[in-house]
Amino acid sequence: MTWLFLGIAILFEVAFALGTNATKGFTRLWPSVLTLGAAAGGIYTLSLALRDLDVSVGYTIWTGLGGVGTVVLGAVIFKERITTARLVSFAAIIGGAVLLRLTAV
């Protein structure tokens, strides 16, 4: 269940990040409500995952993969460019998250 909770937390993190753009500075009611709900859901499910994961591993994976998901969906939804440098950065983030997991006690 730990990894399921972390996966759900990552989805909430991506929804929070993308939703923040839709709030227009939290001046739009429903996007703001959904964004705050996603933030709360992400923190809650992350806290469930951290019952069994070291915070250094869980938080890093949450923010790293949440960031990668945000960039990928930002490219799809907002037509943001994905450059070679960004691809290399994604690989470094994912590689670092995997290495953290493999070295966790």
Automatic annotation (TrEMBL):
- A GO cellular-component term linked to this record: plasma membrane
* Example GO molecular function: transmembrane transporter activity
**Compartments reported by the entry:** Cell membrane
Primary localisation category:
membrane
Highest rank taxon of the organism:
Bacteria
Q: Which Pfam families match?
A: Multi_Drug_Res
Q: How does it sit in the membrane?
A: Multi-pass membrane protein
| Entry keywords, A to Z | Cell membrane, Membrane, Transmembrane, Transmembrane helix, Transport
Mark the transmembrane ranges: 29-50, 57-78, 84-104
InterPro entries cross-referenced by the UniProt entry: EmrE-like, Small_drug/metabolite_transptr, Small_multidrug_res
Task: Read off the PANTHER family from this record.
Answer: GUANIDINIUM EXPORTER, SMR FAMILY PROTON-DEPENDENT DRUG EFFLUX TRANSPORTER SUGE
The family classification in the record reads: Belongs to the drug/metabolite transporter (DMT) superfamily. Small multidrug resistance (SMR) (TC 2.A.7.1) family.
Q: What is this protein called?
A: Multidrug efflux SMR transporter
